[in-house]
Amino acid sequence: MSLFSRAARHLAPLLPLAMLAAPVAAQQKSAVAAPRHLQTGSATPWIYRGSDVPRDPEWLFGEMPNGLRYAVRKNGVPPEQVSIRVRIDAGSIHEQDHEQGFAHLIEHMTFRESKYLANGAAIPTFQRLGATFGSDTNAETTPTQTVYKLDVPEANPGKLNEVFKLLSGMIREPTLSAKGLAEDLPIVLAEKREQAAAAQRVAQESRKTIFAGQRLANRLPIGTEETLTAATPQSVRAFHDRWYRPENTVIVVAGDADPRALAALVERYFGDWKGNGPHVEPPAFGDPVAPAGADPANPVGETQVLVEPDLPRTLTYAIMRPWRPVNDTIVYNEGLLLDSLAQSIINRRLEARARAGGSFLYAQVNQDDVSRTADATFVSFAPLTEDWRAALADVRAVIADALATPPTQEEIDREMAEFEVAFASQVEQRAVLAGSKLADDIVQAVDIRETVAAPETVLKVFNGMKDKFTPANVLAHTRALFTGAVTRSVYVTPDPAEADPAALRTALLAPVSADSGARLAAKTVSFDDLPPVGPPGAVAEQASLGVLGIERVKFANGVSALLWSNNAEPGRVTVKVRFGSGRRAFSPQDAVYASLGEAALVGSGVGELGQEELDRISTGRKMGFDFSIDDGVFTFAAQTRSADLADQLYLFAAKLGMPRWDPNPVIRARAAAKLAYESYATSPNGVLERDLDYELYGHDPRFETPTPAQLDAATPEGFRRVWEPLLRQGPVEVLVFGEFDKDATVEALRRTFGALSPREPIPAEVLARPTTVASDTAPRVLFHRGDANQAAAMVAWPTGGGVAGLRESRQLQILSDLFNNRLLDEMRERTGASYSPQVANEWPEDVPSGGSIKALAMIRPQDVPAFFSATDKIAHDLASTPVTADELARVTEPLKQSISRASTGNTFWLWQLEGASEDSRRVAMLRSLLNDYTQTTPEAMQALAAKYLTARMPFRLAVIPQGQQLATAAGGAAPAPGGR
Question: Can the keyword Heme be found in this entry's annotation (predicted)?
Fold first, then answer.
């Protein structure tokens, strides 16, 4: 039963796209026989067998004589889309020793060639149907399942019939040829190679320890190089025949179509499917077992210390219990809710201890049923120093207190309020749950062998058991969570002298005294008791923005607001506050405080409210407080609801008008940044995360990841000195989009943002600070300390920025997608040099420069010159020769569908209209949006390529292993410029 599913982000119908472009083509007809195997009437649907959870009436379930099960549902979010999931009950845990990696390899080969799709035709075929590769068309392999995913836009009957036909050929009859194996094997090996080496080693060795003696211990979905390179068409086919069978398959379809028609398509294309050979039972996954002689009262088993010089310290211990299938009943789900509440109380106490300057940066308790292998309670934390024993003792002491003494009813009520608002929000927003999310929920339920429930059922179960949330019951469930067959642990440290497995075992066996100091005393905090931001302001101007019924409100103090009240997304209000000058605001000597601000500005408090008070005042409310720094603006953002909107606006305005400056969040953010810094060097990806923007923008300090020395020099006093004036500077724009009362919101704005003091101007020298993409004749070279066969390469072509060039930036997205397809064909499909090369178009709207088109790939060091050569050739080809009409359609059709679907949600329009309260050009450019992204010509693309891709030398960057030199295109080695 999906008690804890996250609310969908979007979408619901808001604006017919016919207002922006030509209407979609008329639907095609395709006659399909009525379904024969739906489980209707008194028949119990297969997913509810053994359960008393009320059925979700919106789902229809069917089971065919060949054993294949399916679920179908009508859902119009987004309009005209149908989401299809094909789940095979086989993953890496089903592999024999010599087959490790085969489940994932077959996933790739299924897309390579099949009954109705020629070699390499799957991706372009689905692109022509409007599906974007990697988002709308995808697959994933886990230890327990392989899932094929397809979101079909403009899903008329003819298109759906074609898609089901193609999918049936892929799943039932993939070619799995020697040629296909030879083409896909390098791609899979590239995917394996591109995983961060240190993190992957830790994951693999941790799995061996935590799941010792079980199949999961030695079976990663990616497999091993030895087993993958030994694969043959015959051995791959044997795995497929053994597991790709109708009785191991579940098909889920949710979308804007008649569910009976969807059921009929499943039956038409999969009803006559028969497995090859006899049915094979899945292997036993094994149980966690304590070693002989372990103390039954504290059965500590396997422990491991992993030394990784570049990774921060982390310690995990797991209380392991055997996993068993359950009857997914209401009583069982009541137990899950009590388990979850018990964990929430402990986690809140651990967070309070960390905030107060404890011995650990963070700590968390989490129960998880892992891959149908173990029911485990994980305790994970990051010691702040090399004294891991003290940190372990402190974490265990907080847990010991939870095991010894019941929580207070006030603590329980606080967590219950959080649960209630989450479940009530799901009910309010059920009409805007995306079909793709609903389909994924069914797949997840099948994987863990549980049912699904409507949001109303979840809320009803919760409300019906409130009398069971007692201190005694929570204590009993807490104790059960920390009781198991065996406890296992892994400590990751940069210093081999700090610990060994025996020392870790001793520390886990050591007695610990309960620490009640982390318990949070009851404290009432109310918005009614908070001081006003200032005298309520006056509305100076209120008028229509001229599009979508949006109103523009301007207050006497200069604050502007855009309000769009609509009921298309019930129960949801999106709030965004844009202010100040963003990353431009920081001088070189103060740049460290930009990074710290992203982590600590919100936590440092508002008026009389510190971190704990902010948590308390939002208990049982749907509120948020996200903060981000863009090139030209600072942003607060939240998802809230109408009942909480006025208080949400108060928090945002109070942060600007009466900020608090608690030092602890700054100290904690500084410690976290220092611990993370060295880990960036463990892989090419990490180095890019740390240094890419810094290198791209010519060593501009504003884009530098602070070094430990810079962090050491930063202080809470310096933090306040830098941020206090920035919160007072520059215009403020508030955007409120969603279901709310407009008049009440104008009044709330008048008492919050309208009450702010007049804003100080942004200094002229700040506005004049440029953002300039670097250029160099030679590649810039940086070094990582990971595996010797890992590298990264990036090429960036400068473009521009600002509102005036928005229409051209949209055309650049088409050009970038064309480049992306060609780079994918060259580096992935043709040479297998990179698993997922990517081309991205970035155009900052709030500053006049700094945009770029970037091509990036994870590759082997010896392939860096080939990547530079490939990108150079593609750039010049695009500038010298017009693309074909088919190549252009493979880009514009997915773009059209992506935008059409996104445009049915409030958030899309909010993004498009940011800044429009002061810049009317953004409104004017809205009307051409869809055409700008989807209507062009080969000649226009050629002209854009000549303007941006070949007019000047691009910036090139390589990240290679430490101690190596960058190879030249001729195969030699060139001296590598120094990198940090």
Answer: no
Partner residues linked to 897 by β-bridges: none
The tokens for 301 are 């088993």
**Helix, strand or coil for residue 697?**
coil
pLDDT of amino acid 776: 82
In sequence order, what are the residues at sequence separation of 6 or more whose Cβ sits closer than 8 angstroms to the Cβ of residue 640? 573, 575, 621, 622, 623, 624, 648
Burial class (CB in 10 A: 0-12, 13-18, 19+), 321: buried
Q: Number of helices (H) and strands (E), helices first, in the chain?
A: 31, 25
State yes or no: pLDDT of 11 exceeds 50: no
| pLDDT at residue 19 is higher than 60 | no
Provide mean pLDDT across the span 702-717: 97
Mean pLDDT of the chain: 94
Residue whose structure tokens are 């796209």: 17
Look at 21 and 787; give whichever has higher pLDDT. Answer: 787
3-state DSSP call for residue 760?
Answer: strand
**What burial class does residue 122 get, using C-beta atoms within 10 Å of its C-beta: 0-12 exposed, 13-18 middle, 19+ buried?**
buried
Amino acid identity, residue 852? Answer: S
CATH dotted code for 527-767: 3.30.830.10
Model confidence at 23: pLDDT above 50: no
Q: For tokens 């049982």, what's the residue?
A: 620
Q: Looking at the predicted structure, is the pLDDT value of residue 31 above 70?
A: no
User: For 318-363, where are the alpha helices, taking DSSP H only?
Assistant: 330-355
Give the architecture (CATH level 2) of 780-974. Answer: 2-Layer Sandwich (3.30)
Buried b (16+ CB within 10 A) or exposed e, 760-794: eebeeebeebebebbeeeebbbbbbbbbeebbbbb
Going from the C-alpha of 902 to that of each of 12, 240, 432, 674, 908, the distances in angstroms are 9, 37, 13, 39, 6
Please answer whether residues 832 and 183 qualify as being in contact, where contact means their C-beta atoms are separated by less than 8 angstroms.
Answer: yes
The DSSP call for residue 281 is P
Per-residue model confidence as pLDDT tens digits over 366-383: 999 999 999 999 999 999
CA distances from 139 to 109, 151, 759 (A): 11, 12, 50
| The residue count for the chain | 980
CATH architecture of 56-270: 2-Layer Sandwich (3.30)
Which among 300, 365, 360 has a CA at the least distance from the CA of 506?
Answer: 300
How far apart are alpha carbons 235 and 936 in whole angstroms?
47
> Measuring CA to CA, how many Å separate 79 from each of 137, 255, 436, 437, 450?
18, 8, 12, 14, 29
Mean of the pLDDT values across residues 66-74? 98
* Residue 795 DSSP symbol: E
Class of domain 300-433+443-518: alpha beta
Residue range 789-815, pLDDT digits in tens:
999 999 999 999 999 999 999 999 999
Bin 400: left if φ > 0, else alpha if -120 < ψ < 50, else beta.
alpha
- Residue 872's CB is within 10 A of a number of other CB atoms, namely 16
Q: What is the distance between the alpha carbons of residues 112 and 180, in angstroms, rounded to a whole number?
A: 6
If one counts every other C-beta atom within 10 angstroms of the C-beta of residue 126, the result is 23
216 close to 371: Cβ distance less than 8 angstroms: yes
**Residue 369, beta-bridge partner list:** 375
Give Cβ neighbours of residue 80 (< 8 Å, ≥ 6 apart): 24, 153, 154, 155, 156, 256, 900
Q: Would the pLDDT of 930 be above 70?
A: yes
Phi, psi of 356 (to 5 degrees): -80, 5
514 pLDDT exceeds 80? yes
Judge whether residue 284 has pLDDT over 70: yes
Domain with CATH 3.30.830.10 in the chain: 56-270, 300-433+443-518, 527-767, 780-974
d(CA 729, CA 726): 5
Phi/psi at 577 (5° precision):
-120, 120
Q: Is the pLDDT of residue 320 over 60?
A: yes
pLDDT band at 775 (very low <50, low <70, confident <90, very high): confident
Of 173-177, 353-357, 967-971, which range is least confident?
A: 967-971
